[in-house]
Amino acid sequence: MEVRRAFSQRAFRLSTYSVVKMADVAETIKLYYDFKSPFTYLAMDPAYKLEETHRVRLRFIPLELAIREAYGGDLEQRAQRDWDKVRYLYMDMRRFANERGMIIRGPQKIFDSRLALMSGLYADRHGRFRPYADRVFERFFKRELNIEDFGALTAVMTEAGIDAAGFRAYADGDGPGDLRAAAAEAERDGVFGVPTFNVGGELFWGNDRVEWLVKKLDQMKLRRVRGA
Question: 42: burial class by Cβ within 10 Å (0-12, 13-18, 19+)?
Answer without folding.
Answer: buried
